[in-house]
Amino acid sequence: MTHPAPATDHSATVEAAVLRLTGVTLHLGHEQQQVTALDAVDLDVAPGELVAVTGPSGSGKSSLLAVAGGLQSPTAGTVHVAGVDLTALKEHQRTAHRRRHIGYVFQHANLFASLTAREQLLLTAHVAGRLDRETRQRADELLEAVGMGARADHRPDRLSGGERQRVGIARALVLAPGVLLVDEPTSALDRARARDIVDLLAAQTRAHRTATVMVTHDHEILDAADRVLTLRDGRLS
Ligand SMILES: Nc1ncnc2c1ncn2[C@@H]1O[C@H](COP(=O)(O)OP(=O)(O)OP(=O)(O)O)[C@@H](O)[C@H]1O
């Protein structure tokens, strides 16, 4: 019987982090108008960990999510997702890796008006070529887990803002991503619903062992995070 070679320390730590940004710098704009949106950012997020990133307007929060999600290539540095450096991939490979390993939750749930809650999840699975029995079952389980089981056949116009956000969270998890990137999830919600949603995100992060990064202005929800980091002028601390 053969045994696999032991992993080197380096590859083991990359895998352990799930999401790892190393020395990430992002310049935006041109020449005199150039802005350093991210400045030598290092960030490791482990499975089951919820990291909140806060910071003033223009500090680089959206840029951080865009780079971590492979939507924007950094000017310098590397972004490892599930052990693979996104910056070393060709565009089509990056898209495939992103679909497989990253889930996104947006400020507004961005649901399709004509689809029911369940169909929002099934469409995501379909686009990824994963509309199989297992994924259908996972979709129903997730809708149950986010408290939307009884409303799985409702379209967005029959759901509240908080309920739509719940569907958005379930949709982000339907392909079992290792990384969850969350952009201002509570900004469209009242206090009580904001609390519900962030508690749900924390619970789902733990239940599904995702490495979750949540960008937020909302200081009242920071207690739900395992770690709180601050961006100032593109520097993370
Ligand atoms: N396309 C662009 N060209 C040039 N500069 C840009 C561009 N997009 C963003 N910036 C600048 O990069 C910096 C970081 O912007 P970013 O949107 O990441 O900040 P943010 O913290 O998400 O802000 P907010 O909280 O207001 O959404 C800002 O100074 C912004 O003006």
From TrEMBL:
One annotated GO molecular function: ATP binding
Domain ABC transporter intervals: 19-237
Keyword Lipoprotein annotated: no
Coiled coil: none
UniProt entry keywords in alphabetical sequence: ATP-binding, Nucleotide-binding, Transport
GO cellular component, one term: plasma membrane
Protein name: ABC transport system ATP-binding protein
